[in-house]
């Protein structure tokens, strides 16, 4: 008889057949039986995992048999692109600042005056805010690691 069968059978015999467990204590006995089963299975799993002839832990083996195993791998592929993103952000900021200075220098010209320099500066500011949004989208495992 397996661990589960033995413990459940013993509980049912005590609770139903013998009637030795009072009705108000049955829930506590069920929880105690469940805890006993859990402890025994954890002991069996630890014993299996500690054997020298096992290829993989029992959880991994079970997940592979069920077809739900996902290997634990680092999927943070953005570390390689971080310098590219930061360079792009710096380029866009420089471009926006450059065009903002150009608008300031040419603000008295007819074409710039017709385009309203304040509106053009708002476009430059919006471009800088958009470029700044690149920074938080570049997570790095070194910067955001919580288990150091």
What is the compact description of this entry?
This protein is mostly helical and 148 residues long. 66% of the residues lie in helices and 0% in strands.
Describe this structure in words.
With 148 residues, this protein is mainly alpha-helical. The chain contains seven helices and no strands. α4 packs antiparallel against α6 (117-132). The model has no long low-confidence stretch (mean pLDDT 85).
**Percentage of residues in DSSP E strands:** under 5%
> How would you state the average pLDDT, rounded?
85
Radius of gyration, taken over Cα atoms and rounded to an integer in Å? 34 Å
Helices and strands, in order, run as HHHHHHH
The helix fraction, in percent, is 55-70%
- Overall 3D shape: elongated
Number of helices: 7
Determine the N-to-C terminus distance.
46 Å
Which keywords apply here?
mainly alpha, 7 helices, 66% helix, 148 residues
């Amino acid at each position: 008889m397996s661990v589960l069968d033995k413990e459940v059978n013993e509980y049912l015999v005590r609770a139903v057949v013998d009637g030795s467990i009072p009705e108000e204590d049955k829930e506590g006995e069920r929880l105690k039986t469940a805890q006993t089963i859990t402890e025994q299975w954890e002991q069996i799993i630890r014993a299996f995992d500690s054997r020298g002839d096992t290829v993989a832990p029992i959880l991994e083996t079970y997940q592979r048999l069920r077809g739900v195993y996902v290997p634990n791998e680092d999927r943070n592929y953005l570390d390689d692109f971080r310098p590219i993103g930061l360079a792009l952000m710096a380029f866009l900021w420089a471009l926006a600042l450059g065009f903002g200075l150009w608008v300031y220098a040419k603000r008295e010209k007819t074409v710039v005056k017709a385009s309203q320099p304040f509106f053009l500066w708002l476009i430059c500011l919006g471009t800088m805010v958009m470029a700044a949004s690149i920074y938080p989208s570049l997570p790095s495992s070194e910067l955001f690691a919580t288990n150091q």
